[in-house]
Amino acid sequence: MDLGLKIKKIRESKNYTQGYMSNKLNISQNTYSKIETGGIKITVDRLKQISEVLDVAVEDIMNNEIQTYNFHNSNIDKFYGYIETLHEDNKELLQTTINLLNEQIVYLKSENEKLLKIISKQS
To answer: Could you list the residue range(s) of the whole structural domain that residue 31 is in?
Structure first.
């Protein structure tokens, strides 16, 4: 099995997207895709970076017999991977939504306090 395919298998076993990997490696997704398909020769330094992101030893990637187990198959990991790869505009939109929801929480808490005061006066 060639090196790019081994990297792809490990990446997929961890439910990482190519976008997540390219973001962590500070390269374009297209460049990362070429690493997995063998379109780009992988330097030793790049291989070390990839092994760190994938949390596997370089030797394990280089080994002819690679075994991958998917112990991280949870939706929350996929969600965090998705958030990290969001386009900057989408991050801003998500942050704006969070800010608006926080403002609504503050407003509802103050309304709740007013109602509790009214109720306590009537008791």
So the answer is: 1-85
